[in-house]
Amino acid sequence: MALEAEPLHPLFGARLKGVNLRDALTDGEVAEIVAALDRFAVCAVGHDRPLSNEDLIAFAARLGPMDAGRSPKITGTGIRIPHNEITDQSNLDQDGAIYAEGDRRLLFKRANRLWHTDMSFRQVRATYSLLASHEIPPTGGNTEFADMRAAYDALDDAMKKRIEGLVAEHCYWHSRSLGGGPDPTDEERAGRPPAYHRLVHVHPGSGRKVLYIASHIAGIPGWPDDEARALIEELTAFATRPEFVFSYEWSVGDVVIWDNLATMHRATPFDDTRYKRDMRRATCRETPVHS
Length: 291
Ligand code: OGA
Ligand code: MN
Prior knowledge:
The protein is of the alpha+beta class. The chain is built from eight helices and 15 strands.
């Protein structure tokens, strides 16, 4: 494999050439991809047609323990993709039809338009997300990424000192509510309790310090809510300044792998009650999780 990385932005992001994620890759080839991820944090790989669910799962399993917990179902809905390892990020119901305006799943998924990192609301965090594109709308629906290593580096010393050692509470339902979603049922809420993580961590692969924030942050234990939210808003606004961000325009067959411990991302709008957007995500976790 002659892996070639073509940068997508001056700070981070690359398109990987010379690799097909459907192939049976050697450990050395996977290590080259991980090295590219440690450097670029977001890597896109194009294919002539969408990866099958099985191919996506098989490659993702090479990057670490996989998330395989069936997300608690949204009350009264069925499942389109029958693999516990895949999170359905489409706007499609179990029959492949576009959700009706007002469908609870659509309303909850619109929270993906807020800057976030995946599964920070779990105590065992997501490491890599691998999003495979099967169908895209004619316009809109890019995904934007922000480099949280570069953002941390650029903070002034006073802010670095202020946030060092602080822990934040991350809760899935907080971002659903910020995103305009309906109130969860008691059962939905109980299925996703909050998790607690430091605002600054050292990335295990690159050794770089990273600002670890997300729209899932509901507060900082011991702080008044308004002060905590003001700090998180200030950090989010700083970290998503244009110099730290690029927008990825999808093609069918792409797999974009991002490092949740080094970046934030967000979906951007498209006409989601008119066009299909079929995206399927496999996710790796810090350590194996059986749930
Ligand atoms: C995700 C996500 C954004 C998008 O899959 O975790 O946030 O553009 N996706 O679909
Ligand atoms: Mn996401």
